[in-house]
Amino acid sequence: MAIRIESEHLNGIKVIVPDVFKDERGFFMESFRADYFKDAGIPTEFLQENHSGSVQGVVRGLHFQYHEPMGKLIRATVGTVTLIEVDIRKNSPTLGEWVSIEISAENRRQVWIPPGFANGFCVLSNYAEIQYKCTAIYNPKGETGIRWNDPSLKIKWPVDNPILSAKDQSAQMLEEWLLKPEAEAFRL
To answer: Is residue 127 flagged as an active site residue?
Structure first.
């Protein structure tokens, strides 16, 4: 098998480490191979791939899509980021809990985030690029977020004064999301 599950978190998130073959010329790795990912219990039908670049201190998130629910397979291709994943599934025993995972171009970790998690990240290096495969097509009318600094979550971000979008600054609190009928989209 050319990938291994390094760790699992919050009943769904998987940290994946691929085999990397290095020599004096550089390296080679399979960043995605359907049969290996299927064997690891990760969906293999991705409908969209996104690529973003951000400068040090940027916090993006905590974002999620409820219509159609979207899972993400995320990796850093340049630089280093800390991913923050928050469980927003109403019936989950880990509802409101979060995990922090560092990914980088150097460690080549990938993280599978199933639907039902709010995803965010903070850029630690001078610059970073993230690529993520998605199990649904982006739907701006079915996408929203949880405020990055929702006091009920007590997230320990690795930056004191993040660079944020206006959208992320004014996102709803988890408690507000859970009162909406759309929150029923996520079930274990």
So the answer is: no
Give pTM, 2 decimals. Answer: 0.95
9, 36, 66, 132: the catalytic one is: 132
* Alpha-carbon distances, residue 70 vs 65, 89, 125, 168 (angstroms): 6, 13, 27, 19
Task: Kindly name the residue from 9, 36, 63, 66 that is annotated as catalytic.
Answer: 63
Q: CA-CA distance, 10 to 92, in Å (whole number)?
A: 9
**120 DSSP β-pair partners:** 84
> What would the pLDDT profile of 77-104 be if each residue is shown by its tens digit?
999 999 999 999 999 999 999 999 999 9
Assess whether 132 carries a catalytic annotation.
yes
